[in-house]
Design brief:
190 residues; mainly beta; seven-stranded antiparallel beta sheet; four-stranded antiparallel beta sheet; 42% strand; globular
Length: 190
């Protein structure tokens, strides 16, 4: 359900979750990740679901459990709210946990970048010794600074973290919106 363009980017097909999430073949733990993404210039709602969450909604999921939100958030400004959205659901947020410190989003049609440093949780059996942490640079601006995650990122529920494999796939969310991705690289860190 995902397509590869002649220009070399891949994208989710518009329509409510046509393709499902896409996963890396390789699994990762602690890592540095670079992702470039953009929302088509046309933008707009591409599903029967209405509202700002249907403007370029996707996500980068580290270990398939910890989501950095991808959303067309240009113009999301609490002062005028031309593109209203809940704070921990906009671009650069740790989805449903922590809003970005600032909104450096570019206009639809322009390529944007996430540079992410992720450290997985550390367990001793079922006891959490240290939560997962994430730092996100969005278009070169720090929007998440070593945010510690004591739960998985999930919609409208607080799902506590539980022990999981120390290496899991990287995934990209299909949320029914067309979002373009290119120039993705990841390196493992110890």
């Amino acid at each position: 359900g995902w397509k590869l363009s002649e220009e070399g980017y891949f994208y989710s097909v518009p329509g409510w979750k046509n393709g499902g999430n896409i996963f890396s073949r390789q699994s990762f733990g602690d890592c540095q990740l670079h992702v470039e993404f953009r929302h088509p210039k046309a933008g707009g709602i591409v599903s029967d679901e209405k509202g700002p969450q249907m403007h370029g909604n996707s996500g980068v999921l580290l270990m398939n459990n910890y989501e950095v939100q991808v959303l067309e958030s240009y113009g999301t400004n609490p002062a005028d709210m031309k593109n209203p959205n809940y704070a921990d659901g906009q671009a650069g947020a740790i989805y449903a946990q922590n809003p970005p410190m600032v909104n450096p989003a570019r206009e639809p049609g322009e390529w944007q970048t996430y540079d992410i440093i992720f450290h997985q949780p550390i367990w001793d059996g079922i006891k959490l010794l240290h939560p997962a942490s994430i730092t996100v640079l969005f278009n070169g601006v720090v929007v998440q600074d070593h945010w510690e995650m004591d739960r998985f990122t999930s919609y409208r529920k607080r799902t506590p973290v539980t022990p999981h494999a120390d290496r899991l796939p990287l995934s990209f969310q299909d949320h029914g919106c067309e979002v373009h991705y290119r120039n993705i690289w990841i390196r493992e860190m110890k």
